[in-house]
Predict the structure of ABC transporter permease.
Amino acid sequence: MADRQTLTESGSGGELPGAGAETAPDLPFGAPIGAEAARESAREATATAAVAAASAAAVRRGGRFRGLLPRRSGKLVTGLVIVGAITLFGLLGPLIAQPPRDSNNPALLPPGPEHWLGTTKLGYDVFSQLAYGTQGSLFIGLVAGLVALVLGGLFGVFAGYFGGIADEVLTLITNIVLVIPGLPVVMVIAAYVQNADGLGPLARSSLLVALVLGITSWAGSAVVLRAQARSLRTREYVAAARVAGERPARIIFVEILPNLVPLLAAQFIFGVILAVLGEAGLSYLGLGPTGSITLGTMLNDAQTGQAVGTGAWWWFVPPGAIIAALGAGLSLINFAIDEVVNPKLRLAPENAKRQRKATKAGKGVADTGAFA
C-alpha cells in the first residue's frame, strides 16, 4: 500500500522535461467512453503548452536585441564574395596584364598558356581587355550610383521632411523624371553630349557616361526615400529636436539620415546595378565611351568583329559573364540589406525555425502522453 502511494505521488509530481506542464490524468478502469475524449483533450492542451514553452525559451535564448542585429545571411556572404572577387580582379588584373591595346599578338587565338583568354580579331589580349574593362565598368557604376543617390536623397528626403509646397514641387519634378522612358533619354543625351563642341576630353569619356546614367536614374530612389522621410519626421525624437529649436538642416543630417543608412545603401547598390547594365547597353549600341575600355565596349567590339560568326566565343563570353556575375552579386547584397530594413523579412526565417522546434516539442509531448 505504501509502495502504491509512493508511486502515485511520484507520478503526480513528475513533469516532462522542457514542457513545464503536467501529464494527462489517468482514467479509472470502467470509465465511460466519453472519458477518452477528455483524455485526448488533455493531451492536446499539454502539446499546446509545450509549444508555448518552447517558443518562449527560444526567445529568451535569442536575447533581447538579437532581432535588431543583421542576421548572418547566406545571400550577403555569397554576394560579398562575388563582388569582392570581381573588384579585386578589376584592381589587380591591370597590374599583371599586358597593355590592352597591344596588337603584336596573333589574331583570334583560342585560350592557351600564353593568352589565358585568347586574342581578338585585332590581336588584343582578351584577359588584358577584361581586366581593364572590369575596372572601367566598376568606375562608371560607382560614379553613377553615387550621383543618383545624392540627387535622389536631396529630392526625396527634403520633400519628405518639409512637406507643403516644397514637397509638391519636388514630387512633381520627381514624377516627371520618373515617367520619362529612361533608355531613349539616355541614348539621346549620350549621343548629343559626346558630339558637342567645347567638352574637350570629357566628350567621350567614362566620366561623362557615368554622369549621364546617374542624372537619369535618381527618381526611383527619391520616391522611396521620400516615403521613409515622411514617416520619420513624425517620430518623437524628431519632434523633440524641432521643439528644442534645432535647425532643419541639422535635424535632417543628424536625426533622419542616420536612420536611412540601410535604405541609402540599398538604393546605392541598385543604382550601381542599373549603371553597369546601362553602360553595357549604350556601349553595345555604339554610344559608350571610346577613350577607355569597359565590358560594354568589349561586347561592342565582339559584335562588330563578328565574333559569333567566327566562333570566337572567348571574345564575348567573359565580359558577358562578368556583367551577369556582378549583377547577381550586387542583387544578393541588396536582398540581404532588404532583410535588415524590413523586419518581416528579417524575422521570417528565425520565426519559421522557432515554429518548427516548437512543433517538434509539442509532437514529442503528445506522443509521450499517448503512451502514458
Remarks:
- The CA atoms of residues 195 and 203 lie 7 Å apart.
- Residues 1-33, 47-70 have pLDDT under 50 and may be disordered.
